[in-house]
Amino acid sequence: MLDAARTLFERAATPSEVSMDQIAAAASVGKGTLFRRFGDRDGLVRALVEAKTTPLLQEIESGPPPLGPAAAPAERLCAVLAAIVDVKIETVALSLAHESGTSSPYAAEGYRATHAVVASLLTELRFSGDAGIAAHVLLAATRADLIAVLVRAEERTRDEIVDGVVGCARALVRRDAGLE
């Protein structure tokens, strides 16, 4: 069921093009089976997002550099933001569905965990402002709706987007913090 839904979202121009009826047909199950397993469309989308983001979160929490905790804070901050952009580019329609669902993407466990890491890194880098708010600002630059505009409407490359997001991170921290 998840594979069928993932394929439909990957092929969709917008998340609204993907219905539970289409997912059920592609998975060769009844629509009721989807609802019993996932509760609703948002539950299915959350399961798909978790399947994609869990390995990334594990690498951020305990993996090797540049994403893991042993990396220098500046290197890690840039790597974390770049990895999030990569996931959003790879899964833009799915990410749009997740971020526009009935539950807030900011309440998702993955967002909270990533936010905590980014805020902690900003603190380590001696960011002089509110690291929690700054982390939200940086992560807002990785939202799927923005990524969709950058990729689809503005035809920006992955490198242009990553450079822009990382550039924002660099601008937020002091020069002596090691990001420049």
Automatic annotation (TrEMBL):
It comes from the Bacteria. This is TetR/AcrR family transcriptional regulator. The keyword Transferase does not apply. The keyword RNA-binding does not apply. Keywords: DNA-binding. Residues 1-56 form the HTH tetR-type domain. Gene3D superfamilies: Tetracycline Repressor, domain 2. Residues 19-38 bind DNA. InterPro entries: Homeodomain-like_sf, HTH-type_TetR-like_transc_reg, HTH_TetR.
